[in-house]
Structure formats: C-alpha cells, structure tokens
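--- STAGE predict ---
source: upstream dedup step, 1 unique chain passed
mode: sequence only
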Amino acid sequence: LALVALPSFAARKPPAPQVPTIDWAPCIEGIENLDCATVKVPLDYRNPYGHKTTLALARIPASDRDNKIGTLFLNPGGPGASGVDLIYNGFGDVLNEILRGRFDIVGFDPRGIGESTPIQCWDSEDDRNADFRGQPIFPYRAAQERPFFDVYRNVAYKCFANAGTQPILNFMTTGDVARDLDLLRRAVGDSQLNYLGYSYGSFIGSTYANMFPRNIRAMVIDGVLDPRQWSSGWQIKTDRVGAYHVLLEFFRQCDLAGKDCVLGGERGSKARFDVILAEARRQGTIVIGEGDDIFEYGYDEVAADASSLMYSPEQWPAYANFLDLLNRALTGEKGAKKAALASRRAIEKAFADAGPVQRAFYDNSFEAYFGNHCSDASYPYSFEWYSAIGKYADAGSFMGPNW
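--- STAGE serialize ---
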C-alpha cells in the first residue's frame, strides 16, 4: 500500500515562481540605447514565494525594431564576471551590429555577483587585500604552501561569519542561475531562449540545456569547459594542461612568423622562454627595471602572465616583445631590464583599458568565484589533499598550479 501511494507523493512539485516585471530605464542620464533594470527572483526555488534575491540587468535595445527576433542573453564567464559590465564595455553594441539590430542584447549579473545581491565577505577591498598581503599568486616554494593554504581556507569562515552575505552563500549554484535565466526569458516575453556564454558561461548554457531542453531557440557556448569535470570538482584535469597547449601554439606561430616575431631566432621562441622560466624558478624572482624603478618579477607571475595572455591573442605581439627583452636582460644586455619593465607596464595598461568599467563600490568577483565553485561541487579540504593536487597540477605543466 505504501508503494502504491509513493508515485503521487513524488510527483508533487513546488509552485511555479512568479515571472518578474522588468522596468527598463536609462543606465546613465543623457546616454540613449543603454538601459538598466533590477528584478527580484526566488532565493530558494523550493520556496519560490519566500525570500527574494535581486538580479541586475543591462540592455542594448534592438536597433531594427520592426524585424526584432527576440532577446539575446550574455554571460562572460568567471564565475564571478559581470554580464552588465560586458554591456557597459561596448560588447552589446558590437553584437547589435553583427546581428543586424534584430535582438535586444541583455547582460545579467548572476546571483551573488556584481550589482546583483552580492556575496561580500569583507567590509572593504582594503580589508580583503590585507588578509592576502605577502602571499604569492600560488605557492612555488615548500615553505609557502601551508601559509597559503591556511589563508585561502579561511575564506569560507570569513564569508559565513558575515551575516549580510550568508543567505546567498547557500544558493549560488549554476542550477539556480539557470532557473533565473529561464525566468528572465519569460520576463522579456520570449517563448524560447537565445544565449551566448563564454568559459564558465558555457556551463550555464550546458546546465540550462539539460534543465530546459525545449526552451532553447539558439545557443552559442565558447571556451567550453567539461561539465562533468566542473561539477565533480576536477576541472584541474583540463586546466593543468589546457592553457599550456595554447602557449605552445603561441610559440609555434611566433616561429612561423620569422623575423616578424622578435622572440624567435635560431634557437626558437620556446627555448628562449624556457631560459626565463628556469631562471625564475631558480631565483624565485627576476628583477627588471633600473635604479629606484624596479619590479621583482616572481616565478608565480611568470606563470600567471602566461595563463592570462593566452586569453588575449591580440596581445601576443606585445607579449613576445616583453619576453624578448626579458631574455636579453638575463644575458646582461644594457638597457634591456628597463625596456622590459616598460613593456610589461604597457601590457598591464592595455588590459586595464580593455577591462570592466568599475561602477560598484566593492568588486566581489573574488568571493563570487569561490561562492559558485563551492556551491557546484565538493572539494577535498585537508592540507594533504591540497598539497597532492598541487603536485598533480604542476606535473601537467608549469601553468598548472596557477589554476
């Protein structure tokens, strides 16, 4: 008799959440065709009429209103990156032109991120920076490993100790983001979703496609991560080698370019880079610049720069120039240290100029990154596991530990 009753009990579902109304208004007074809005969605979809959380949106309206197809939603990845910033930075205008003005282009900040109700674990960015002061980007000396582990493990305690951020901490899964996205689709009046997602945004797309397979009109996911690795906590399997394969392609294209790539030469670009890497690993840091204007370029920064720049092929010529100068500085060439520092600063400026417009008082992308990761998957939490995974990452490539 109990078994007979079970199917009707299992079939019960939470009531459907209410579709929010979007009240678009100009983001900035005097600037046309750039709209913003906030909407409230259920914090917990098991209790859709309970507590709410706020999502921030930005929109470039379709320029061809007569032939409008629908709305295209964007996510730039991270996790922790802002879709609102993507619109502010002009990407919406680019898409509007490419798509002939037939879509509203909408960026949204996923729950807990950016201008949506945020996860915030420190009172200020200065307080957060103080907690990590003196730590490398990743530990590359045995003595660095335990202090680094202790500082990062404390992030969870910081977040749960902050009463204001506790509610969202338990509801930052990608499944919840996909449910939000389906509500937003309905809120703009589209019968099916149009979506473009990069990197972690590809996992949002994959998750949505699994949860709402009949609700998709068109979906593009780029820089696709393995959803099984991500959700099992083993994304490091790909990350420890993926960026390195791109770096090898950077070397290959440099060598093919001949004299047009200054890093090349008779020995080849990889061999010259390997000299830099070996010296940084041996010394820990390479000093560049002259006199009072110097910069200690650490082994961790060599690896982190290589990882970051593989995302930006438009910066590859500038990166090759910097590595050439750095290699020449190691041979003792006069003036090369000063030129190398100027070259790296130029790359930093290019990244800053192309980066997100900082409109929020507090940049919470750091907390948001971990808030989503640790909602989607379970990770080992002992120091022994951490150390073992670090060695596993390093065995994949020198870039592995950066991930």
